[in-house]
Amino acid sequence: MKAKQKKVAVILMTYGSPKTLEEVPQYLKNVYGGKDASAENIAEFQRRYDIIGGSPLIEITQAQAAALEKELNEKTKNLTFRVDAGMRFSHPFIEEVIQRSAKDADAVVGIIMSPQYSPIIMSGYIRELTEAVNKLNKPEITLKIATDWHLQPFFLKALAERVNQALKKLPANTPVLFSAHSMPKRVIDKEPNYIDDLKETAAEVAKLAGVSKKQWMFCYQSAGHTPEEWLKPDFVDVMPELAKKEKTHVLIAPVQFLADHLEILYDVNIGAREQAEMYGIKFASTKSLNTSSLFIKALAQVVQETLE
């Protein structure tokens, strides 16, 4: 008699985004823990979302989930996978996705769509997923959550591939800025290892892509709209320094973001471009990983290793 295949529900968890400009106030309220955003912040975010034509983050994460489901079911014996995408601050929320996708599962695997793990920054995802699984009232379900995977080999290769693709179109020795989302300094003072992991990812990608140590540097982007101190150097600090060195081109290569969304389509492709061109520097950025085949293989490996 053929053994019953175990069912695994995988959920890719990320921030989320408003689907319309009218949803921006509620989305920001969710991000700010129930506190209303200022009218100024709401207007600025609506302006940015309007310029990029809305964020594709949810649709791309759902496409990543579909590709990962296919990869896992084709390459894995004795297990059946269902992969979905759940958002922390917008529909489809993590809880509503789990209620739908994990009701007949034997195990649940959660992946936070940020390879560099921080217990402080990412704890909300773990709490919400754990609570969502508990609400199923099925104590027999096994819950496992991937944490750090910033050196996953296929992930590093996928980023290096994007860097090489971009550099082929640029002059030799074009400076490469590996970027990550800036954070308030007070948060990182409590958890310096998070920044070390980001820089370690950047260094490994540079090595794989054949970018010399003199050619690249690490910097931050997308600092928040608050008066407190955020991490440096930011894009805006780096561009004048490149101009002083008479650099004519620059390549921005985010090492933390896994899909196109506001921080890529606006902060990098519009904001950073404007800063570069202000100093006469020609701007280029790497293509986001999105559903890159190497990246999907990376996610599949993360799922397998988490299950094991």
Give the helices and strands, then pairings.
Elements: E1 6-14, H1 24-31, H2 39-52, H3 57-75, E2 79-87, H4 94-101, E3 107-112, H5 119-134, E4 142-146, H6 153-167, E5 176-181, H7 185-190, H8 193-209, E6 216-221, H9 235-244, E7 249-254, H10 262-265, H11 267-278, E8 282-285, H12 293-307
Helix pairs in contact: 3-12, 4-5, 6-8, 6-12
Give a quick summary of the entry.
This protein is of the alpha/beta class. It contains twelve helices and eight strands.
What does it look like?
- With 308 residues, the chain is an alpha/beta fold.
- The protein folds into two domains: 6-149 and 292-307, Rossmann fold (3-Layer(aba) Sandwich), CATH 3.40.50.1400; 153-285, 3-Layer(aba) Sandwich (Rossmann fold), CATH 3.40.50.1400.
- It is 47% helix and 17% strand.
- The chain has helices spanning 24-31, 39-52, 57-75, 94-101, 119-134, 153-167, 185-190, 193-209, 235-244, 262-265, 267-278, 293-307, and strands at 6-14, 79-87, 107-112, 142-146, 176-181, 216-221, 249-254, 282-285.
- It has a four-stranded parallel beta sheet, with helices on both faces. A four-stranded parallel beta sheet has the order 6-5-7-8, with helices on both faces.
- Helix 4 packs across helix 5 and helix 6 packs across helix 8 (193-209).
- The longest helix has 19 residues, at 57-75.
- It is globular.
